[in-house]
Amino acid sequence: MSDANVTNATIRPAEAAHFGALAADWWNPAGSSAMLHKLNPVRLAFLREAVDLHWGGDIESVKPLTGKTALDVGCGAGLLCEPLSRLGADVTGVDASPENTQAAAAHADGAGLDIRYIPGELGTLGLGQFDLVTSMEVIEHVEDKAEFVCQLAAHLAPGGLMVLSTPNRTLASRTLLIGAAEALGAVPKGTHHWEDFVTPEELEALLTDAGLTMGQPRGISWLPTKGLHLSADMSLNYIVTATHA
Fold it and tell me: Residue 173: which pLDDT band, with cuts at 50, 70 and 90?
C-alpha cells in the first residue's frame, strides 16, 4: 500500500488518481488504508531510532525533532506527517493528489497540528532543503525512479537524514503483497505492480548515483503471532536510511 505519489517527471497520473480516490477514507483504520495504519508504527519505530542515532539526541525525549525541518514526499493524507509534527518537527507534506493533501490538511487542522501540505511534483515546487526527508511506500509508484531519488537528494540538507521504505521485488512479495493481500481485500486492487518493486541493491545504486550513502536496510515482515514488525527478513518490505556521501 502506498503513502502515494509524486506529477510530471516522476508521477503516473493513473497512480495519483488511484490514491486520490481513497483520500476520504485514508484515516479510517478499518478502511482501504488499514494496512498503512498497521505499518505506520513499525516505520515510526525505525525512524525514531534512526533520528536518535543520527543526531545523538536524548532517547527519552518526546520531541527529538524539535528545531528540525521535515519533508514527507508522497504523504498521502498525512499518516506520517502528523507523528513527525508531534515529535517536534516543522513538517511539510507533498503529494501528487490534491485530494490527498486536502484530506491531510483537514485532519491536521482537526488535530491542532500546524503542517504545510502541498500538491504537485516535488521538483517544481521550490521548497528548499530539509533536515529530514522521508518517502514511505512511494518509489514503487513513480515513473522515473532515478529522477525521483535525485529530487529527494536535492531536498536533503547537508548533515540531514533520509528514510525510505518500499516493497522488495521477490516471489514472496508477489504472492503475499499482491496476490493474497488484494484477494483478501487488505489493500485495494491495482495498488501494487510487482514489476515496479525495487530491490535493496537497486535502491542502493539509485541512491549512490544521487550522491547518497545507504545505511543497513531492515526488513518489515509479518507473522501471525506478531503482525508487522522489524526483522532481518527483507523478502516482503524493507526500510532504510540514507545520508549525503
Answer: confident
